[in-house]
Design a protein that fits this description.
This is SGNH hydrolase-type esterase domain-containing protein. One of its GO terms (molecular function) is hydrolase activity, acting on ester bonds. This protein has about 250 residues and is of the alpha/beta class. It has one domain: SGNH hydrolase (Rossmann fold, 3-Layer(aba) Sandwich), CATH 3.40.50.1110. About 45% of the residues lie in helices and about 15% in strands. The strands form 2 sheets. Strands 2-3-1-4-5-6 form a 6-stranded parallel beta sheet, with helices on both faces. Strands 7-8 form a two-stranded antiparallel ribbon. The protein is globular, with a radius of gyration of 18 Å.
């Protein structure tokens, strides 16, 4: 997880004064289904840490962006990431850009499939973010890497490995990796990044869930973090949510 300011790496290290400052800020988050998983994880964590006072509100109404509000909404259509960029921009320009302290757009794993053009998608995202930044210089943009999926397993996967065929999910995760590397190269160390892909591919012991194609290493979702290969279960959502809350606290 990249952090714009601050040094807190564990929720237990965050002082009450920082949680108090967080309760006076407002945020907007545009997403689809995995976003709901992450927000459920935020709710899970707030049950354990009552000092985190964020009110989660589903709304695109700028009036909802009061102190301590994490506003969110669906944006666009799955498999059509350009519609998500357009909706996000429209909501920001519709008033959220003047009210929120920070905002983020998250793509879904289905937005970057085997036939995707990750370079083109990143160029479209980067261009729109630059327009938003120029219009709303006081708005902090939080960049999210694209989430991953698990790789195919079982007897069919074993046969594919023997005959040298690509496992289900490999091409998709390679394209997501390409997009994520472009995002990291552009914003790492300059603007806040929630590296969902890194969190999702990191085991509880700190090792990465990876695979190789043509001598290059790529990453996939840890099976322990999902029940369907893409959406986050209680374990996975809390992993991502914890890093999101720390990122917000460090802004």
């Amino acid at each position: 997880m990249e952090q714009k300011k601050g040094t807190y790496k564990n929720l237990n290290d965050v002082p009450d004064t920082t949680w108090d400052k967080l309760s006076k800020k407002s945020f907007y988050f545009g997403h689809q289904s995995v976003g709901y998983n992450i927000l459920d994880g935020v709710r899970d964590i707030m049950k354990d840490y009552p000092e985190i006072k964020l009110k989660i509100v589903e709304s695109t109404d700028p009036a909802a962006l009061t102190s301590g509000v994490l506003a969110h909404s669906r944006v666009g259509k799955n498999t059509q990431p350009e519609t998500k960029i357009n909706d996000f921009s429209r909501y920001i320009e519709g008033g959220i850009g003047k009210k929120a302290d920070a905002a983020a757009l998250k793509f879904c794993y289905v937005d970057i499939l085997a036939n995707a053009d990750p370079e083109k998608l990143f160029a479209e995202y980067e261009s729109e973010i630059e327009k938003i930044r120029n219009t709303f210089p006081n708005l902090t943009i939080i960049h999210f890497t694209a989430p991953l999926t698990t790789l195919q397993t079982g007897p069919k996967a074993w046969v594919k490995k023997i005959i040298g065929r690509s496992l289900g999910g490999a091409k998709e995760n390679i394209n997501r990796h390409t997009y994520n590397e472009l995002l990291r190269a552009k914003y790492q160390g300059k603007e806040p990044i929630l590296d969902i892909a890194k969190i999702e591919s990191t085991n509880s012991d700190g090792t990465r869930y990876s695979f190789e194609v043509d001598g290059k290493t790529y990453y996939s979702l840890v099976p322990e973090y999902t029940s369907d290969g893409g959406h986050l279960n209680e374990i996975g959502r809390k992993k991502v949510a914890e890093q999101l809350i720390l990122l917000l606290a460090n802004l």
